[in-house]
Amino acid sequence: MINGKTNGHQVPVFHYSWQLEQGSTVGIALHAATRRLKGSDIDTPKLDSELLLGHVLRWTRAQLYTHMERPLSDDEREAFEHLVERRLNYEPVAYLVGEKAFYGLDLFVDHRVLIPRPETELLVDLALDIIMQADRLAASATNGNGRNAGHREPSVSVADVGTGSGAVTLAIAANTRAAIVCGIDISADALAVARANAQRHHLTDRVQFLQGDLLEPLDRQVDVVVANLPYVAQHEWSALAPDIAQYEPSLALSGGADGLGLIRRLVEQAPGKLRPGGMMLMEIGATQGAEVAALARQVFPDAFVEIVTDYAYNDRIVRVQT
Ligand SMILES: C[S@@+](CC[C@H](N)C(=O)[O-])C[C@H]1O[C@@H](n2cnc3c(N)ncnc32)[C@H](O)[C@@H]1O
User: Fold this and answer.
1) Which of 38, 62, 140, 165 would disulfide-bridge 113, Cβ 3.0–4.6 Å?
2) 322 lines ligand 1 (CB under 6 A)
């Protein structure tokens, strides 16, 4: 074991070597990899083994199950061994296979971006609700009866602050034509991934990406601000799983001393960039609800502010209706 230093944090790094016998079948390879990963306390050893071998063979998991007796070629075996070794060193599966599904979209991901989390899909649900509502109002104002909505220009402008892989920006754009979405990130590397994902899903004409600090790059006010900004506090670093601490960009995780450095600045910037009557949705850590809600009430004294819990009943989003 050596001490690895990544993202400014000391994390243990183990170097494993793992090999299969020549001519191993799909079934044997999966069984052996699952046992090995389990022995290293990987949470989902069977699933990870299947995803990694599926990636090597370009097969679905169903194809693996129906071809258990198929021998691996030397190239396939070596490629699988290499991926399992990297997983034994806690490299996330999403980085190993180069993609992650989010809100029904397969997104490219690599070490330049945070791996989108399922919890963040709630942010998209809430954003889509408000966009649809606002669009219905705009439709009835334009047409009286709301018909022909499909032929109108997008009526709702959205800024997704800290877009990373583009997950939230693209999930919104893919699910409604009512919004024009601008994804902002301070990281040029992250924006390169977001742009590649926009191209992959043919959404380049419905989204825009800007580089800069929080809402600063916006030259206009928007109707909706969504943000999943970094919110890990300094004291929480030592408890982070090595998959996260060692591999995901610290720029996408670290929220400063108390975790709220960026969220605080975003709320303070918002009055200049959020249209009166607009909505702000911020993903937060499970212990941060009360503090972020209090901050929002201070900056927007007339707003309706509430904390929304996720499906595990953790505080997850602060919603501010100005
Ligand atoms: C927690 S990640 C979220 C990524 C993506 N929205 C998601 O949900 O998967 C936070 C993102 O905020 C970006 N970021 C960090 N500081 C920023 C700042 N001052 N202004 C804009 N973006 C920032 C990071 O580069 C990172 O991509």
Assistant:
1) 165
2) no
d(CA 316, CA 120) in angstroms, rounded, equals: 9
The CATH number of the domain holding residue 261 is 3.40.50.150
Q: Do 283 and 144 belong together in one domain?
A: yes
Pocket test for ligand 1, best of 262, 268, 288 (most atoms within 8 A of CB): 262
Mean pLDDT for each consecutive 10-residue tract of the chain (322 residues)? 37 69 96 96 96 98 97 97 96 98 98 97 98 87 59 88 98 96 98 98 97 97 98 94 95 96 98 96 97 98 97 95 96
For residue 322, the CA-to-ligand 1 centroid distance in Å is 23
Last residue of a domain, one of 51, 77, 101: 101
Residue 12 structural domain: 2-101
Ligand 1 centroid to 160 CA: how many Å?
A: 9
Residue 266: closest CA among 191, 180, 240, 256: 256
Both structure tokens of 73 = 């070629």
pTM of the entire structure? Answer: 0.92
Task: Say if 106 falls within a structural domain.
Answer: no
In angstroms, the first-to-last Cα distance of the chain is: 53
